[in-house]
């Protein structure tokens, strides 16, 4: 009880101290702030804190918090000079993450974002503009099918399918729902298979595609018994018949899976069957075409992430066939001293017209080929070998199409991501190159003769000219070679020979790409990249590099981005996640409030029209002549040298005090540049008397010669933009109440506004230094009280424990004495049994007289482990009559039964206690032993060796 009281009192003291320290550092937030719900507001810095030391602390930390208000420096979005962006919160709710402050550093180094890379803008959940949200009681909204022309987004979730209106997915009453849950009996069978009834024993929708004009085709895991069926689009209902989906859908909802319909044919790739065997299949129409499993397994523990159709037959001069590409990560086959990765990224290809061989490779792919995808930093031979997502950007001709891949590492404790770009033409060249072959479990490049026609090729006009009109007409020699040589020797390398984007401490999960034509007439690829923590990075590819335009925090709770789908008609992107679907506009040009913001962002969707940043798609082509945009360099078009209203302040400080001159940079890519009386400040550091950080200029120990005019410029893309102006006056004497401040620095090109009126003097008892003394005194008093009470409680607890011990000590001595008086200790000792019988007799006789020790060869007893564990010896009963066989040595009949049950594999030492402390039971026992030993002297042993029961 006393410990609980001490803990509660200590907790009370801690909370009291924290509240006092909070009151010491900051004043109350502005009045009339709504606290019933979350809302944003801006407030002057003086309303938050009214002293220089706290303002300095605020600038360093970048965050201020009260029980119902959270504030941060206004650095994202629309920011007002001298104001803070604040979020009011209900008292019972913790504030959301405001973001990390800008780190102090060299002015030449742009600030870093929370992931350690350069980013122009960052927006948190409250700053999402134009967002729409849909969710329900279901989970895992990871399967999305967009039909843009019809204005419908179909969503497959756990146990349900939804049809949402693409214009506004969150509109009330606009969605339609089909509930498709696994039956209770099927869930029980799933549980009996050892599966998790919280995550796995449900019907997870994995496949959702358009089948024909009137129906959709859908497949689900159905509690580890995959099922497929049709959906009537007009009525949005399931058909009455269900099909077995074991050949079309994986059992496990977490296994990688991809699938698509191509001209009425269903292509899927996953780990099928209950044993999760990887395979690429054409499931419809029958017969099913699969990959080969022997003698060479074409796929090894493959995890599929995507698939794509490339229409090579369109405008083909050689009559080529369409191809389906599959992207996955599998266990490496080509192990070597220079290649130690256990998993590698692959791309595989099959031809749409492949129906398998006639005799060899029946119902197996004859055109299957695979090659390794390389995404590495060549300077360091650093390979990212796990493929997470792909996106194909189609073009005409089909060989000029490109695809983007998101790569990561197989080590779970290292979070690193990269984006590489590949061309379909390079992939085709790799498949036309040399093969690999397996020799003695090692894969090496094949140098022998390749049969004709080339194995793995699609049927073209050249094949038809030779009488080969389908894969079933291919010779067995070609098919046998294709069976044993599915792997290509050359690797598919990215364009530019390096990643477009490399990010540390970021786990990218999904990617979607949109081609946009800018004002200069050039096409640019805008990348939308989702992370495993619920962020969306919007970037533009410029000159083989990726410039991240902005980062958006999508969800209040951390969750991964599972799916990204772009709607060109609605100009929106739809994001699937474990808890719902989010709709965002492709760009929010209104976020940029000045010309420099609009140009520096390098957003292909946005341009400056002279007064605002506007969406170029909303302007007809004949009205775009007045728009300004610069994607390549991001520094041309703005004529003025100011980025919005410039901050002007006059600071009067005492000599020796530190003062911070704030310079808020609207862009995270901008670097601050400071001038003093028109000349750039040089030599940053403590010795120079000032320090430049990304939040401002810190004057350390202000001196009289530091009085003057300070200007802050934001430098980005080589452009200097005036961001703040200060006039600093260092005073060597204290300003008396009523005395006016000295005039500001006069040498300026424009008239400076008059300085703000000085604050009214406050009475001496309420000044900051006196209040600080009062609070420090209160803290010291409370600390002393806590210490005194803790000592008192410890003393009371110790006294109570001592009293209880004393009471037990008064009641226990008699019993302890009795235990010690009746104790006999048994110890195991070593000895030898060799010698004459007389020597044994003399030794045994001597044992009864020297120090009261007795050596016995016991029967089945065990030595006592400790002295205090033996209970008092009970009175010995009379020995029962024994058979005549036990009287061989004339001694067994007279031994107590206790001794005859002792362990016969060791000697036991019996030590008798002092005679004055022995109990009556002891005398009866010793007398019995003496009689036995006396009789032993006169007993003639039959054999020269005693048996196990002799003494």
From TrEMBL:
Keyword presence, Ribosomal protein? no
UniProt xrefs under PROSITE patterns? IG_LIKE, SEMA
The record gives the membrane topology as:
Single-pass type I membrane protein
A Pfam entry, by short name:
PSI
Q: Which residues form the signal peptide?
A: 1-18
Q: Where is the composition biased (Basic and acidic residues)?
A: 834-844
**One term under GO cellular component:** plasma membrane
What domain of life is recorded for the organism?
Answer: Eukaryota
Q: Name one GO biological process term.
A: semaphorin-plexin signaling pathway
Compositional bias, Pro residues, is annotated for: 740-757, 871-883
- According to the UniProt record, where is the region Disordered? 734-757, 803-889
Is Plastid there in the keyword field? no
Family of the protein in this entry: Belongs to the semaphorin family.
Which protein is depicted?
Semaphorin 4G
The organism encoding this protein is Scleropages formosus
- The gene from which this protein is expressed is SEMA4G
């Amino acid at each position: 009880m006393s410990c609980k009281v001490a803990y509660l009192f200590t907790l009370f003291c801690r909370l009291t101290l924290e509240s006092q320290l909070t009151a010491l550092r900051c004043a109350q937030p502005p009045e009339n702030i709504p606290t019933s719900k979350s809302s944003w507001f801006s407030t002057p810095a003086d309303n938050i804190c009214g002293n220089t030391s706290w303002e300095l602390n605020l600038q360093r930390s970048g965050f201020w918090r009260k029980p119902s208000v959270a504030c941060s420096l206004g650095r994202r979005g629309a920011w007002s000079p001298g104001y803070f962006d604040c979020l009011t919160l209900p008292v019972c709710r913790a504030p959301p993450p405001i973001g990390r402050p800008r780190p102090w550093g060299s002015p030449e180094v742009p600030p870093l974002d929370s992931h350690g890379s350069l980013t122009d803008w960052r927006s948190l959940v409250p700053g999402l503009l134009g967002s729409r949200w849909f969710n329900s009681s279901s989970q895992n909204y990871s399967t999305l099918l967009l039909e843009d022309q019809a204005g419908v987004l179909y969503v497959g979730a756990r146990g349900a399918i939804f049809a949402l209106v693409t214009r506004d997915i969150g509109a009330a009453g606009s969605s339609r729902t089909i509930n498709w849950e696994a039956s209770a009996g099927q869930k029980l069978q799933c549980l009996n298979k050892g599966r998790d009834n919280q995550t796995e024993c449900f019907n997870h929708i994995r496949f959702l595609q358009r089948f024909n004009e009137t129906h959709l085709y859908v497949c689900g895991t159905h509690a580890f018994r995959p099922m497929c069926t049709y959906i009537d689009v007009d009525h949005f209902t399931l058909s009455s018949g269900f099909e077995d989906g074991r050949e079309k859908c994986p059992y496990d909802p977490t296994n990688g899976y991809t699938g698509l319909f191509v001209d009425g044919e269903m292509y899927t790739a996953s780990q099928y069957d209950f044993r999760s065997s990887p395979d690429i299949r054409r499931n419809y129409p029958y017969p099913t075409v699969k990959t080969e499993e022997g003698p060479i397994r074409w796929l090894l523990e493959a995890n599929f992430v995507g698939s794509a159709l490339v229409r090579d037959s369109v405008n083909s001069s050689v009559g080529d066939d369409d191809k389906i590409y599959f992207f996955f990560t599998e266990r490496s086959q080509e192990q070597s001293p220079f290649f130690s990765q256990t998993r590698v990224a692959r791309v595989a290809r099959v031809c749409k017209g492949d129906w398998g061989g006639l005799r060899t490779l029946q119902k197996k792919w004859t055109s299957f080929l695979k090659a390794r995808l390389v995404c590495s930093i060549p300077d360091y031979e650093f390979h990212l070998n796990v493929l997470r997502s792909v996106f194909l950007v189609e073009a005409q001709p089909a060989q000029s199409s490109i695809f983007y891949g998101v790569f990561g590492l197989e080590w779970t404790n290292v979070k690193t991501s990269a984006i590489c770009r590949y061309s379909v033409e390079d992939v085709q060249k790799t498949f036309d190159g040399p093969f690999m072959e397996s020799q003695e479990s090692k894969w090496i490049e094949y140098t022998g003769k390749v049969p004709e026609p080339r194995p793995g090729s699609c049927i073209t006009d050249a094949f038809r000219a030779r009488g080969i009109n389908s894969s079933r007409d291919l010779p067995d020699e070609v098919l046998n070679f294709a069976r044993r040589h599915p792997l290509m020797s050359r690797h598919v390398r990215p364009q530019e020979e390096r990643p477009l984007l490399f990010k540390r401490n970021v786990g990218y999960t999904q990617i979607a790409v949109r081609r946009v034509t800018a004002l200069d007439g050039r096409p640019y690829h805008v990348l939308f990249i989702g992370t495993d923590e619920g962020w969306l990075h919007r970037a533009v590819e410029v000159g083989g590099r990726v410039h991240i335009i902005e980062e958006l925090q999508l969800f209040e709770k951390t969750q991964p981005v599972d799916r990204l789908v772009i709607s060109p008609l609605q100009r929106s992107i739809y994001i699937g996640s474990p808890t719902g679907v989010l709709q965002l506009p492709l760009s929010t040009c209104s976020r940029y409030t000045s010309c420099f913001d609009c140009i520096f962002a390098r957003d292909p969707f946005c341009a400056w029209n002279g007064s605002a940043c506007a969406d170029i798609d909303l302007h007809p082509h004949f009205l775009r002549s007045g728009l300004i945009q610069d994607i390549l360099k991001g520094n041309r078009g703005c004529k003025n040298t100011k980025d919005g209203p410039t901050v002007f302040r006059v600071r009067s400080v005492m000599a020796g005090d530190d003062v911070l001159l704030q310079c808020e940079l609207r862009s995270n890519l901008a670097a601050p540049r400071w001038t003093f009386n028109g000349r750039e400040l040089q030599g940053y550091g403590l010795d120079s008397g000032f320090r430049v950080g990304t939040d401002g200029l810190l004057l350390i120990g202000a001196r009289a010669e530091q009085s003057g005019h300070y200007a802050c410029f934001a430098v980005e893309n080589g452009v200097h933009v005036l961001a703040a102006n200060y006039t600093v006056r260092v005073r060597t004497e204290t300003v008396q109440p009523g005395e006016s401040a000295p005039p500001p620095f006069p040498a300026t090109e424009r008239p400076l506004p008059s300085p703000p009126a000085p604050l009214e003097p406050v009475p001496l008892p309420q000044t900051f230094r006196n209040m600080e003394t009062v609070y420090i005194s209160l803290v010291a008093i409370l600390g002393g009280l806590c210490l005194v009470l803790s000592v008192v409680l410890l003393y009371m607890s110790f006294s109570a424990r001592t009293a209880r011990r004393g009471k037990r000590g008064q009641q226990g001595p008699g019993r302890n004495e009795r235990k010690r008086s009746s104790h006999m200790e048994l110890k195991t000792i070593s000895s030898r049994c060799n010698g004459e019988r007389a020597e044994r007799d003399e030794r045994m006789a001597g044992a009864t007289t020297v120090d009261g020790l007795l050596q016995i060869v016991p029967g089945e007893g065990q030595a006592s482990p400790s002295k205090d564990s033996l209970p008092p010896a009970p009175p010995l009963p009379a020995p029962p009559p024994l058979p005549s066989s036990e009287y061989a040595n004339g001694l067994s009949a007279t031994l107590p039964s206790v001794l005859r049950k002792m362990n016969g594999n060791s000697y036991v030492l019996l030590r008798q206690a002092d005679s004055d402390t022995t109990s009556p039971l002891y005398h009866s026992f010793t007398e019995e032993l003496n009689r036995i030993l006396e009789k032993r002297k006169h007993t003639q042993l039959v054999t020269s060796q005693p048996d196990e029961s002799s003494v």
